[in-house]
Amino acid sequence: TEALADVAWSPTESQFVAVGGAATGRVLTSPDGITWTLRYSPAYFFNALGRSEAKDLWITVGESGHIYTSPDGTTWTSRTSGTTQALSEVTYSPSLDLWVTVGLGGTILTSPDGTTWTARTSGVTTSLWDVSWSSTDGYFVVCGDNNVVLTSTNGTTWVAQTASPGSTNWYAIGTDKDRKSTRLNSSHVSESRMPS
After folding, report:
1. First CA to last CA across the chain, in angstroms?
2. How many distinct helices (H) and strands (E) make up the chain?
3. I need a surface site. Which of 50, 98, 160, 181 has the fewest CB within 10 A?
4. With 80 as the cut, is the pLDDT of residue 164 above it?
5. 3-state DSSP call for residue 43?
6. φ, ψ of residue 106 in degrees (nearest 5)
7. 129: helix, coil or strand?
8. What's the rounded Cα separation, in Å, for the pair 48 and 71?
9. Is the distance from CB of 76 to CB of 68 less than 8 angstroms?
10. 156: phi then psi, degrees, rounded to nearest 5
11. Residues with Cβ < 8 Å from 145, sequence gap 6 or more?
């Protein structure tokens, strides 16, 4: 049995795609969430999955800097990330037409097409666990270990934000229409208002 790390639905393709793995990687698809078909099984695992309906593109990221793209969830192509750091999350900004992935060692990479990736300076060396795009305010938000919260309006320049006091490792982040940022760790939830 292999663990699954992420799943997403495509209304355009009318299918779910799930990724994960442990000893080996897993990419599976399903039309109904009940019956699943194994599509790809590399020697390394995936941590996260991103989807752009406008581009009809799937992107999965994971162990040792591996990035794969697919037009249909079935056929996957390896892309050069330029890093060996594990990548933990990936997201897409329709407004900027830009992909962002984050990972260990303060890694942030951006791409306009999922094929060519560029390393960006995060200003931190701690692990980054999640990245989210706020369509309301037009910025990315990243969270990670040691109370790290970063924002960027273009994916290139990243600004450290003041988070709640104490040394806390944040594993997930999301934003809402009221510019409130919600961060989650293993024990509690924190909410703060992000800059406008």
Report:
1. 45
2. 0, 19
3. 160
4. no
5. coil
6. 75, 20
7. strand
8. 17
9. yes
10. -100, -50
11. 126, 127, 128, 129, 169, 170
Q: What is residue 8's predicted lDDT score, i.e. its pLDDT?
A: 96
What residues does 100 pair with on adjacent strands? 91, 110
Structure tokens at 149: 């919260």
Asked if residues 24 and 2 have their Cβ atoms less than 8 Å apart, the reply is: yes
> H-helix or E-strand containing 105?
none
Following DSSP, what letter does each residue of 131-190 receive, concatenated? EEEETTTTEEEEEESTT-EEEESSSSS-EE----SS-----EEEE-TTSEEEEE-SS-EE
List pLDDT tens digits, range 5-29. 999 999 999 999 999 987 788 999 9
SS3 assignment, position 88: strand
Look-up: residue for tokens 């060396």?
Answer: 125
Look up residue 123 and give its amino acid: G
CB atoms inside a 10 Å sphere around CB 1: 4
Count CB atoms within 10 A of the CB of residue 144: 26
What is the spatial distance between Cα 107 and Cα 20, in angstroms, rounded to a whole number? 20
pLDDT of residue 1: 65
Residue 88 is predicted with a pLDDT of: 97
